[in-house]
Design a protein that fits this description.
Blueprint: E1 4-9, H1 13-24, H2 26-33, E2 37-43, H3 47-54, E3 59-61, H4 64-69, E4 75-78, H5 85-95, E5 99-102, H6 105-122, E6 126-127, H7 138-145, E7 151-157, H8 160-172, H9 176-185, H10 194-197, H11 200-214, E8 224-225, H12 233-241, E9 244-254, E10 259-269, E11 281-288, E12 292-299, H13 303-320, E13 355-365, H14 370-380, E14 385-390, H15 393-397, E15 403-410, E16 413-414, H16 415-426, E17 436-440
Parallel strand pairs: 1-2, 1-4, 2-3, 4-5, 5-6, 8-10, 10-17
Antiparallel strand pairs: 7-9, 7-11, 9-10, 11-12, 13-15, 13-16, 13-17, 14-15
Helix pairs in contact: 1-13, 2-13, 5-6, 6-11, 8-9, 14-16
Bound molecules: L-homoserine (HSE).
């Protein structure tokens, strides 16, 4: 059978990796796919660099639309990123009857409903294994391997940049700003690392996992997103003393009234495997009612790890090309006619309805009765305390200090109740600085 013909839009880090892995493993990949997979065309604004990567093996063009217009191309691989031109090109490729493979989590988390609908109408596949956790086959695991389960929750370290920063803060006792500069110097963080450090990249990925896990439409606009920029070295140290590590988690959970979808720093018990995922590595834990807890670990970014996911999608497409897609795995795991039926799907819950436990760090005047007042407010709000740690004033504020930090761990409570209690505590004259609140996930 003729090799399936692929056009790459963008041949940067992931595109080059895709090209070289396909070349290196072509024989095994052909035996798996049942036919060859050939990158026939590459579009890149930097045509000179693109030619250096592909040599004579593929035609290099400067205009992506030349690929979309070529009737010989079966699959378009979009590796441009972002919501702008990438969205237009993906929709044009679908309209031209091409299958699409994309690593673009931002595009699918925000415009997925429109894109998957267009693909279904045209009878083509939009595949996106590389969009979540790079080389870890988490989309396949959630969509196929765990299909028997009623999934209860998914929690993941799904941004390598922030995990690297948090690991360095803990290992070296440094503050966020210092480590961010180091991460940029090492090339881990982008020159503009906003999407990574503010949690947006992780929220794009969590949004996709949430849709697949729970059979709801992609709803990035309903995700709660909080990054790591306000974390201090002190919180990481206090957490450690209490037996926890702080990780930026993407969490989506089935609750009584709906689905939780949130990204924020979280205390995780140090004994959990996921708490020990260090540096730029990714890991996702999925809890299903039948299988229990499963863990997926690996490289969440990088040239060949991401190419590994892109090529897995190409193999799926090579096997299905020309077949009746009505029988293929639905892009969001659930049949599209069961997604987003008004009033039928579970709503994404507002943050006030989320139930979790908390770490609180409260800078207080070191006076009699301060702790009692605070615990009284928590008790009135029905918030149960799990542990309290009080530092020596000297340790916190230096010799002769009259201030200290109270660290309180709570049991599960509604976020709305915690908000109210914290507003009351913050208003106490003996509370001397903005309260730090970090959510805590036991993941058991
Ligand atoms: N910037 C991401 C990360 C990789 O740091 O994990 C691509 O999503």
């Amino acid at each position: 059978m003729k090799p399936i013909q692929v056009g790459l839009l963008g041949i940067g880090t992931v595109g080059s990796g895709t090209f070289s892995v396909l070349q290196r493993n072509q024989e095994e990949i052909r035996r798996r796919a049942g036919r060859g997979i050939e990158i026939a065309m590459v579009a890149d604004l930097d045509m000179t660099r693109a030619k250096q990567v592909v040599g004579d093996a593929a035609k290099v063009v400067g205009d992506a639309r030349e690929i979309i217009a070529n009737p010989d191309i079966d699959v378009v691989v979009e590796l441009i990123g972002g919501y702008g031109i990438a969205k237009a090109l993906v929709l044009e490729a679908i309209a031209a009857g091409k299958h699409v493979v994309t690593a673009n989590k931002a595009l699918l988390a925000v415009h997925g409903t429109e894109i998957f609908k267009a693909a279904a109408e045209k009878g083509v596949i939009v595949a996106y294994e590389a969009a979540v956790a790079g080389g870890i086959p988490i989309i396949k695991a959630l969509r196929e391997g765990l299909t028997a389960n009623s999934i209860q929750w998914v929690a993941g370290i799904i941004n390598g940049t922030t995990n690297f920063i948090l690991s360095e803060m803990r290992d070296k006792g440094l503050d966020f700003d210092v480590v961010l500069k180091e991460a940029q110097a090492l090339g881990y963080a982008e020159a503009d690392p906003t999407f990574d450090i503010e949690g947006v990249d992780a929220a794009h990925k969590a949004t996709l996992m949430s849709a697949i896990a729970f059979g709801i439409p992609v709803q990035f606009d309903k995700a709660y997103v909080e990054g790591i920029t306000k974390l201090s070295g002190a919180d990481i140290r206090y957490a450690e003393q209490l037996g926890y590590r702080i990780k930026l988690l993407g969490i989506t959970k089935r609750a009584d009234k709906g689905i939780e979808l949130r990204v924020h720093p979280s205390l995780v018990p140090a004994k959990r495997l996921i708490a020990n995922v260090e540096g730029a590595m990714n890991a996702v834990v999925v809890h299903g009612d039948a299988v229990g807890t499963t863990l997926y670990y690996g490289k969440g970014a990088g040239s060949e790890p991401t190419a590994s996911a892109v090529i897995a999608d190409l193999v799926d497409i090579a096997r299905l090309h020309g077949a009746d897609l009505a029988h293929s795995v639905p892009p969001l795991a659930f049949q599209s006619n069961t997604l987003g039926a008004a009033g039928k799907e579970l709503p994404v819950l507002p943050m006030a309805e989320v139930v979790t436990s908390y770490y609180l760090r409260i800078r207080v005047a070191d006076e009699a009765g301060v702790l009692a007042k605070i615990t009284g407010i928590l008790a009135n709000a029905g918030i149960s305390i799990d542990a309290v740690l009080q530092r020596e004033a000297d340790e916190v504020g230096g010799e002769g200090s009259t201030q200290t930090d109270l660290i309180i761990l709570t049991h599960d409570t509604r976020e709305g109740d915690m908000d109210q209690a914290l507003a009351e505590i913050q208003a106490l004259p003996t509370v001397l600085a903005p309260i730090t609140r970090i959510r805590k996930e036991e993941l058991n």
